[in-house]
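U., I forgot to send this yesterday:
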Amino acid sequence: MKPKKSARSTAQEAGPPADSERPTLKTIAFMAGLGVTTVSRALKDAPEIGQATKNRVQLIAKQIGYQPNRAGVRLRTGKTNVISLVLNAQSEIMGLTSNLVYGITEILSETPYHLTVTPYSVENDPMQPIRYIVETGSADGIIMSRTEPNDARVRYLTEHGIPFATHGRTEMGIEHPFHDFDNETFAYIAVKSLVERGRRRIAMLAGPSPSVTYYRHLERGFARAISEGGVNSLSFSGFDVDTSLAGIRDRMVEIMSGPDRPDGIVCCSGSAAIAIVAGIEAAGLEIGKDVDLASKQSTDVLKWFRPQIIVFNEDVRQAGRELASAVLRRIAGINASELQTLSYPGEGHD
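Result:
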């Protein structure tokens, strides 16, 4: 009778996989001199596997760039190990998208989950990417932005029992995970800062329309500060933060060249603020002298661009961390009411 081969000798005799193949459990087994089953259990942190073995296996896996086969994982567990970020393709280019993704991936990097980005255009139905993800089962959780007061996506995902978190709040009576920036407070203190500088005719470049929740928050804070300050509010018509930067600049040239121009402006987007400044200066006016601008930013760029701008910081990377944590905890079964966070305008203004 032939002696039974050990797991170590079996792994060694199998030889290394071809260089062109992606690393597998067999690759790690060969390198560690262990059986495939032992390697699999070590990677899952199984209690019956010694810590020294786990450490060795996990180190090898990291060094060779091993990633579990998602199709196999899904067959075994019913999970994809994917979180999908559903993002408006016209999102602010200056740091908002990249910092949001950085924040999310910082949290996911310590988990088996991977991030995919599903873009959509504001001209299209925002329900389309949500339905696709749910109907194909292509993600275990969803993060989405540009929430509306009565958001059909929130209702749909809640009814289908899909874990999700929103960058922004709703006003529909459904408890769901979210992280939001306090835009009402931002608009309020931005107007106050302009009033303190003696500005009496103040306008705001806000969100795309009242259909987006944060637009309402901005309007409430703006109106309250205008009333308290006893100053006049002016309206910008024909453009908003979704307008191209060139379009914002051109409209600002027209407005600031006219007789009814504002002497104070509130802007809710860092990139739009740069376009506003370009329009003001093209009209022959000077920031900090003829007109003051108070804007929020998600990257430290506006003070470098024009030190005269009154700046308020929004930590979008932290928003990404909060959203990733919220959706992971929701997947784990934590109650939605415990997964709601709010951040406030950071220091960065005069």
